[in-house]
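Repro:
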Amino acid sequence: MSAESSRPFSCHFSLRDVNKWLFRAACAAQQDERIPVVYRPNDLLRLSEKSQRVQVMFDRIAERYDLMNRLLSARQDVRWRKALVAKLPVQTDRQGILFDIACGTGDVMLEVARRRQDYAELRGYDISFEMLRRGESRPD
C-alpha cells in the first residue's frame, strides 16, 4: 500500500509468516491437552501444496467474490459483519492492532473502519494476491 493511498487499512501476504504462526499455535496446543489439535506441525508440506490450490482458486474468483458472497448469503454477510464488529473489544488507549487473517477483499476491515475508530491499525492478510488487490481498489 502506498503512503499516499487513502485506504484505512493495509493488506499483506506472507505464507511463511502464516505458517510460522500456525506452527507455533499447533505446538502450544499440543502442550495443552484441553485444546483439540486440528493443525499438526508435520502437515506443513501438505499445507503448502493445498495453499497453492486455494490461492489459485481465490485468485480466479476475486473479481466476482463480493457479489457472489452477497447473493449466495442473501445479504446475510452484511449482518454477520456488523455483528462481528460490534463484538470486538474496545481499545480505550487506541493502541490496538486488528489482524484479519484470510481477509479476502477486506470487508471486515472496511466495516471496522466505518464503525470503529478505536484501533490504531488494521492489517489484512490473505493467501490470494488478487483478493488483496481487489480489496485495495474497492471504491467503498
